[in-house]
Amino acid sequence: MLGLWGQRLPAAWVLLLLPFLPLLLLAAPAPHRASYKPVIVVHGLFDSSYSFRHLLEYINETHPGTVVTVLDLFDGRESLRPLWEQVQGFREAVVPIMAKAPQGVHLICYSQGGLVCRALLSVMDDHNVDSFISLSSPQMGQYGDTDYLKWLFPTSMRSNLYRICYSPWGQEFSICNYWHDPHHDDLYLNASSFLALINGERDHPNATVWRKNFLRVGHLVLIGGPDDGVITPWQSSFFGFYDANETVLEMEEQLVYLRDSFGLKTLLARGAIVRCPMAGISHTAWHSNRTLYETCIEPWLS
Ligand SMILES: *[C@@H]1O[C@H](CO)[C@@H](O)[C@H](O)[C@H]1NC(C)=O
Ligand SMILES: *[C@@H]1O[C@H](CO)[C@@H](O)[C@H](O)[C@H]1NC(C)=O
Ligand SMILES: *[C@@H]1O[C@H](CO)[C@@H](O)[C@H](O)[C@H]1NC(C)=O
Ligand SMILES: *[C@@H]1O[C@H](CO)[C@@H](O)[C@H](O)[C@H]1NC(C)=O
Ligand SMILES: *[C@@H]1O[C@H](CO)[C@@H](O)[C@H](O)[C@H]1NC(C)=O
């Protein structure tokens, strides 16, 4: 008898609970809603948060409920301010967002913003960045006089810009902070107050700490492509750059990689570097191309 009761009792309980089942299911957390990490977006040169409206729509559509913050700092011409000043400003803006996200955050950083973000990862010893998505960003520098440079320095050809950029005055412009003239390596190493430091190309007291900080990142997602038209060489988006003969050497052939001076080699060995090259996208189309979003960005926004 007891055995029979033992079998029937559960069945009876289920029957009693049946009317409340819809309520119970509603109360249970739906697995697909399991909170997505907040996304922080940093814009590029002469750019502002407005250009990211399509990206925001995509994220809202595919990952509903994600908290996305497009930082409206150093917009338009203000984006020419020295990069260290911008890093300080963006740092103050990301600290509270990170503090509210114990699971971590994702960074999507476009063009020049990609360098601001890399510096943030280096100087913040408490950052919790899971995916750092570098969207067509001149990570190894820029050596090309595209339209925006002609507007800024009308008389300077690209082979002469080093005279301005590698002076203390020049380093007051963001563009000069990552101007990388392959024909004046010694001047670059000496004068670059930003790129040569975050690359660990010029030694400085914080280099070891910065490298350690940078290596806290979960994934480094590099996006760029041959039809960009502004980033020169376009392989700079993937840590490739010109040698003294203007032949592009890939990341694995770069001294900063071989010396692992800021952590690239370690990240690659860990399987943490994702390279996503995309043809057919011009520089100003990176933040609104849906194919690109689905292929290169969405998979890394968990
Ligand atoms: C996100 O999507 C929902 C549902 O489609 C819509 O109601 C809402 O306005 C969207 N929010 C943004 C910020 O796009
Ligand atoms: C660099 O190191 C010095 C001395 O340890 C420290 O005071 C300073 O805050 C560090 N700067 C950065 C940007 O990490
Ligand atoms: C590097 O900078 C130092 C001090 O700023 C200067 O004395 C030296 O001549 C520079 N070297 C080169 C190659 O420009
Ligand atoms: C550049 O090319 C010249 C001639 O082809 C060659 O002698 C030289 O070694 C090259 N330099 C570099 C840095 O590759
Ligand atoms: C979007 O990206 C795809 C794939 O790279 C490319 O073929 C297409 O032309 C792009 N569309 C626009 C509008 O840039």
Automatic annotation (TrEMBL):
GO cellular component terms, A-Z: lysosome
Keyword line: Disulfide bond, Glycoprotein, Hydrolase, Lysosome, Signal
Family: Belongs to the palmitoyl-protein thioesterase family.
Catalytic activities: S-hexadecanoyl-N-acetylcysteamine + H2O = N-acetylcysteamine + hexadecanoate + H(+)
Entry GO MF terms: palmitoyl hydrolase activity; thiolester hydrolase activity
Function: Catalyzes the cleavage of thioester bonds from S-palmitoyl-CoA or S-palmitoyl-N-acetylcysteamine (unbranched structures) but does not have activity against palmitoylcysteine or palmitoylated proteins, branched structures or bulky head groups. Conversely, hydrolyzes both long and short chain fatty acyl-CoA substrate.
The name this protein goes by in its record: Lysosomal thioesterase PPT2
PANTHER family registered for this protein in UniProt: LYSOSOMAL THIOESTERASE PPT2, PALMITOYL-PROTEIN THIOESTERASE/DOLICHYLDIPHOSPHATASE 1
Subcellular location: Lysosome
One Pfam short name: Palm_thioest
Enzyme Commission number(s) from the entry: 3.1.2.2
Keyword Phosphoprotein attributed: no
